[in-house]
Write a sequence for this structure.
């Protein structure tokens, strides 16, 4: 593992978290690898997102609120909710690509 890119040894193959996620998606890896990915995602959500991005993403994806409902609930403009969700997702993708180091 180098300083900027987290890699894991999986079945004698070095994989980044994003590559592991793709294998899991294609059902090539076990439930243990899914647990690792869930931990990494939780770490990335906790460490990579701003509090407002985290709040918007969780309300949108986990709780199923629409962006308009989130905007009303948080008393912000719906376009701001959209921006928080979009930028937060980009940060999460980047974290999965390069790794979250405190897993």
């Amino acid at each position: 593992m180098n300083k900027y890119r987290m890699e894991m040894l999986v079945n004698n193959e070095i994989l980044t978290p994003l590559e592991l996620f793709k294998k899991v998606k294609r059902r090539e890896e076990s439930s243990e690898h899914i647990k690792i990915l869930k931990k990494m995602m939780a770490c990335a959500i906790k460490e990579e997102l701003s509090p407002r991005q985290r709040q918007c993403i969780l309300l949108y994806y986990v709780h199923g609120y629409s962006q308009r409902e989130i905007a009303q609930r948080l008393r912000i403009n719906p376009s701001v909710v959209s921006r928080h969700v979009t930028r937060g997702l980009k940060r999460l993708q980047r974290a999965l690509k390069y790794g979250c180091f405190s897993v």
Confidence is low (pLDDT under 50) at residues 1-7.
